[in-house]
């Protein structure tokens, strides 16, 4: 079953590579409970097939980095990028994309959270295994209020500009 507007985010966890050690977060990969992280916040989330892939690197992440201040001005507390990669890869990709401290690069290494959203996709024919469909959503206090899922290989509705217009 695919998540839809009005649904609560499913139980799950995501990992993030932490660049600077702080109280409660150690340097390196840290695992977070999605429900705890989303509680009481308005979050723009976008999912994509993979770090360092062409459309994801050239358009998807840069759009959210570019429009981060506009999201904040509309009351969005955080922006998350979720991909079926490990936290080390997501951390390195985030540094390369100049997304550090702008977009939280969240790793779903085994695709467990992505599968629970019903937004997984089989990329085996590309040698990539199970990955995420390309999507964006707005989540308020753990509930999906907007959802934009791309159709097969497209990049038309999950971009930052579309979600920003829906906030």
Describe the protein.
28% of the residues lie in helices and 29% in strands. It is an alpha+beta fold and 167 residues long. The protein has a single domain (13-17, 26-166), classed as Glutaredoxin. A hairpin with a 7-residue loop joins strand 6 and strand 7.
Write a compact overview of the structure shown.
It comes from Pseudoduganella lutea. The protein is an alpha+beta fold and 167 residues long.
Describe the protein's topology.
Elements (H helix, E strand, L loop, with lengths): L12 E6 L9 E6 H5 L3 E7 L5 H13 L1 H6 L4 E6 L3 H10 L7 E4 L4 H6 L2 E3 L7 E3 L2 E6 L2 E7 L10 H7 L1
Parallel strand pairs: 3-4, 4-5
Antiparallel strand pairs: 1-2, 1-5, 3-8, 6-7, 8-9
Protein name: Glutathione-dependent peroxiredoxin
Organism: Pseudoduganella lutea
GO biological process, one term: hydrogen peroxide catabolic process
- The helicity comes to 25-40%
- Secondary-structure element series: EEHEHHEHEHEEEEH
The total count of helices amounts to 6
Predict the CATH topology.
Answer: Glutaredoxin
List unreliable stretches of 5+ residues: none
The rough form would be described as globular
Strand order of the largest sheet: 2-1-5-4-3-8-9
Return the domain count.
1
Name given to the CATH homologous superfamily: Glutaredoxin
Using only CA atoms, what is the Rg?
A: 14 Å
**Based on the structure given, which CATH architecture is correct?**
3-Layer(aba) Sandwich
The proportion of residues in beta strands is 25-35%
| Total E-strand runs | 9
SS-based structural class?
A: alpha+beta
Distance between the termini: 25 Å
How would you state the average pLDDT, rounded?
92
CATH class: Alpha Beta
**Biggest sheet: strands, sense, closure?**
7 strands, mixed
Assembly classification: single chain
């Amino acid at each position: 079953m695919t998540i839809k507007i009005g649904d609560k985010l499913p139980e799950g966890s995501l990992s993030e590579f932490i660049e600077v050690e702080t109280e409660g977060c150690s340097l390196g990969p840290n695992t977070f409970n999605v429900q705890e992280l989303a509680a009481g916040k308005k979050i723009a989330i976008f999912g994509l097939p993979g770090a360092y892939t062409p459309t994801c690197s050239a358009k998807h992440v840069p759009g959210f980095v570019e429009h981060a201040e506009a999201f904040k001005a509309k009351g969005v507390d955080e922006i998350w990028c979720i991909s079926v990669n490990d936290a080390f890869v997501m951390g390195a990709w985030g540094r390369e994309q100049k997304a550090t401290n702008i977009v939280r690069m969240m790793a779903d290494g085994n695709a467990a959270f992505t599968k629970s959203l019903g937004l997984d996709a089989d990329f085996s024919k590309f040698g990539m295994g199970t990955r995420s469909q390309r999507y964006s959503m707005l989540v308020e206090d753990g509930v999906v209020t907007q959802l934009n899922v791309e159709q097969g290989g497209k990049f038309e509705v999950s971009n930052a500009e579309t979600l920003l217009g829906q906030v």
